[in-house]
Amino acid sequence: MSPSDPAARWTGAHGGQTFFAYSTNYLVDVENAIIVDVEATTAIRQAEVLAAKCMIERSLERFDLYPSRLLGDSGYGSAEMHGWLVYEHGIEPHVTVFDKSARTDGTFSRQDFIYDRAGDVYRCPGGKILTTTGALLNDGATLLHVASKRDCDRCALKSRCCPKQASRKVPRSIYEGARDMARQIARSWEGSTSRRLRKKIEMLFAHLKRILKLDRLRLRGPNGARDEFTLAATAQNLRKMAKLVPMQSLKPA
Q1: What residue segments make up the domains of the chain, in order of their start?
Q2: Which residues of the chain have pLDDT under 70?
Q3: Domain 9-99+179-243 belongs to what architecture?
């Protein structure tokens, strides 16, 4: 715990030397690189997702600004976040999917199974069906699709599918439809365009550290971090807006 600021979080997020820090989160209009909202959080990944939700809802309430899409890296790519964007707000998720379903032991991964949305079943590489009872697991966010033991015992691909299990089980998030939408967007032309536009966001953070020299906070506590981040974002916006507003030609008196 930091003796000067107990609320600061010990982090090594950048892969270098660990230090006490806060995180600043921006909601940016990528067309003009204008910062719409700022949220200060502790330096953990989970707080970034909550900050994104807070800023989106706050911009809707304060400015009646409803985004059609959200750009973000895998830090915002959880299943619950994708579901919140698509199902609750109708926002296109141009967000990298955070996915750990790939296997490294040589057996089939979930992507090797074909999902039938109409029947809510998976079809395995051997052509057999995996069904679900509809029971929700993991805090009500996951459905488990299970193959028949008889089908697995007779399958020639069992050694490559479930060598240590009686039958194959494939979990599916209740938000997987939104995640599939994000995967389709990532493979599209719009997805590649969004990845290029994300550079505008990263440039703002680079400017914050290298030009404004905000690599160390002067104020202490969450409120101090919020005030410094807000003032820094205001300075960045004023600098950007000065470039966007065309200079009027001076006429001689």
Answers
A1: 9-99+179-243, 110-174
A2: 13-15, 247-253
A3: 2-Layer Sandwich (3.30)
Burial class (CB in 10 A: 0-12, 13-18, 19+), 179: buried
SS3 percent helix, strand, coil of the chain, rounded to 5, is: 40, 25, 35
The residue type found at 199 is K
- Who contacts 155 (Cβ-Cβ below 8 Å, separation ≥6)? 124, 126, 128, 161
What gap in Å lies between CA 54 and CA 57, rounded to an integer? 5
The overall average pLDDT reported for the chain is 88
On the CB side of 130, CA atoms within 13 Å amount to 25
Non-local CB neighbours of 2 within 8 Å, separated by 6+ positions = 8, 10, 20
Please name which of 118, 122, 128 lies closest in space to residue 145, comparing C-alpha atoms.
122
Query: What DSSP assignment string belongs to 219-251?
Result: S-HHHHHHHHHHHHHHHHHHHHHHHHSPPPPPP
Gap between the Cα atoms of 142 and 171, Å rounded: 6
pLDDT at 251: 54
Compute the C-alpha angle 205/210/214, nearest 5°.
70
Q: What is the pLDDT of residue 39?
A: 93
pLDDT the model gives residue 181? 94
DSSP state letter for 21: E
Q: Where are the alpha helices (DSSP H) in 64-134?
A: 79-83, 89
